[in-house]
Amino acid sequence: MIEDRIRNMLGRDERSEAAITRIQGDASSRQYFRAATPNRTLIACYDPLFEGRDAAGYPFLVMHRLFSAHAVPVPEIVSADSTSGLIMQEDCGNLQLQDALAAASPETAALLYQDAVELMIRIQRIPRSTEPVPFSLSFDMEKLMFEFDFFIEHAILGYFGDWFSEGDALALRMEFEAIARLLVRPEQFVLNHRDYHSRNILIHRGRPVVIDFQDARMGLSQYDAASLLRDSYSRLPDKLVLDLQRLHHEGLASAGIHREGFDGYLRMFDIMAFQRNIKALGTFAFQMKQPGKASFEASIPPTLAYLPRYIERHRELQGAGRILQRVLEGEGR
Questions:
Q1: What are the phi and psi torsion angles at 250 (to 5°)?
Q2: Helix 221-229 to helix 262-287 angle, to the nearest 10 degrees?
Q3: Among 52, 246, 260, 317, which is 20 to 30 Å from 90 by CA?
Q4: Cα(243)–Cα(236) distance, integer angstroms
Q5: What digits encode the pLDDT tens for the residues 119-152?
Q6: Burial class (CB in 10 A: 0-12, 13-18, 19+), 168
Q7: d(CA 78, CA 86)
Q8: Could you tell me the domains of the chain?
Q9: Whole-prediction pTM value?
Q10: Which ranges carry the Aminoglycoside phosphotransferase domain (predicted)?
Q11: How far apart are CA 248 and CA 265, in angstroms?
Q12: CA nearest 205: which of 90, 291, 315?
């Protein structure tokens, strides 16, 4: 059992007294546990992809070293054992940005999100190197179309399947290919966390701490910005979103990363957010098929609700919008 492996990684005098409880994870194969002993509490992550692997090349540990070297706050690693597939980490609590937002005043919420955007800028200012992880990975055409195809398979032909034919799916894929081509701009790529939303940012001692960063890759700066500001789990007021977009744009421009004007930034933000929300919908539709994952259905309507505004503002999205019209009007279920 995984719990037995966790005990074996604790100190000899802690094993018998440790209380080990499962923590609800998100949409991944990783499992998380809290190990509480009389003197400390640790978070144990079991990843079957880490088991038996060379720790030096394991993406989570690679990204942890990179983020730590650039002062990006991440939980401290206490120990890692690839034989058991376990990583023991500092316990930074369970207050997600999503939960902090629900209890915060508008002023406090704005400050929390300003901190999260400043941290995102710090990540995106990390310079490229020759290391294969994460710098050889990117949101290239293959990756973007994989995510679009995942949506077609699991949402269009699966969850919304009563309303769509194979012909609709083919037509939609052609629209998605044109959209993906707009987003493949390697000369503008920066480092992205890749899942930078309100459930992957903990508020620890009043400040944001980043988790779940093992899938980082290069892409447009608007990818992580869309993940945070057009989040499936937390909807922000439009004025706050615009203020945070401006903060992000100005922060990157001052670092010499962005050379486009704010209007150009906003255009690419919307097109990237369309792709990012479509990707999330595919994930939710897939997860709902898994045992015990029905709760993901609740995230589908708020994610769909973002799409009409992007489509209305940008002609490049309107072909896809026409195919998705019934879903967007609430008729698809």
A1: -65, -35
A2: 60
A3: 52
A4: 11
A5: 999 999 999 999 999 999 999 999 999 999 999 9
A6: middle
A7: 11
A8: 2-90 (3.30.200.20), 97-328 (3.90.1200.10)
A9: 0.94
A10: 20-253
A11: 10
A12: 90
